[in-house]
Structure formats: C-alpha cells, structure tokens
Amino acid sequence: MVGVAHTKRECWVIAGFEPRTNNESSRLRDLKSGRSGLGFDPVVHSERLTATDESAKKSAKRVLNELMRGDPLREQSCWKETPLDLLCRRGERNGLTRFLSEIRDRLCPLFSRTD
C-alpha cells in the first residue's frame, strides 16, 4: 500500500511534532508568532500550509525544515512516537486521518489471523 498526503507529506510529519527541547519549543513559538510568524500553530493546523514556493511563509517544506533542522531521525519520530489518537485529531483536515483509517480498515484485516 502506498500513502500520499492530501496536501503534502510534510504536513503529516508536522502534525506529529511535539517539542522535546527548549530549542524546539522556541522554534515552534517563532513559527507561530515570531517576526515572520504564520499567525497559527502549524502543528495543530498543518492543512493551512498551502504555499507551493518552498521559501514562502506557508510552505510545509519550509516549516518542516525549521522544526526538524534536516534531521531525518527527528522527522521519523514524529510519526513513530506520537500517539495515534493525537495524529488522528491533528490529521482531520490534511488527509492523515483518512489514510490511517484506510490502513486500519483495508490493510490490517489482510494480516489478521482468522483461525
């Protein structure tokens, strides 16, 4: 099964971001309301990251890079360690919840035992 994000794959990762350090908290705070802030929380409302130009304020790629600093392991932790119910709540409008439901309803039964 292949998953493709409704808007951008990056929005799904951002939806799972939980700051671990003071530095990460500061970066998120700056993204929300700093000098060039978005005016909204990109973690809670990642579906609002709609810009196609990667350098634009509302670019999901830019926001992801700001939060992760290019660390693929940190990015991976956003979808591996974040509780599923939280991912589903945050992913209501960016397609993640629908994708996770499809996995649960269509893929998981293929691997369940029917003894």
Question: What is the fold's blueprint, element by element?
Answer:
Elements: H1 9-15, H2 22-33, H3 60-68, H4 72-80, H5 84-90, H6 96-111
Helix pairs in contact: 1-3, 1-4, 2-3, 5-6
Summarize the structure.
By secondary structure, this protein is mainly alpha-helical.
Plain-language structure description:
The chain is an all-alpha fold and 115 residues long. It has one domain (9-109). Helices cover 52% and strands 0% of the residues. It is built from 6 helices and no strands. It has helices at residues 9-15, 22-33, 60-68, 72-80, 84-90, 96-111. Helix 1 (9-15) crosses helix 3 (60-68), helix 1 crosses helix 4 (72-80) and helix 2 (22-33) packs antiparallel against helix 3. The radius of gyration is 15 Å and the shape is elongated.
Which short descriptors sum up this protein?
115 residues; mainly alpha; 6 helices; 52% helix
Percentage of residues in strands? under 5%
Let me know the number of strands.
0
SSE pattern: HHHHHH
**Radius of gyration over alpha carbons?**
15 Å
Number of domains: 1
Secondary structural class: mainly alpha
- Total helical segments: 6
Give the termini distance in whole angstroms: 25 Å
Parts with pLDDT < 50 across at least 5 consecutive residues? none
Can you summarize the main beta sheet? none
Mean pLDDT reading: 89
Fraction of residues in helices?
Answer: 40-55%
Bulk shape? elongated
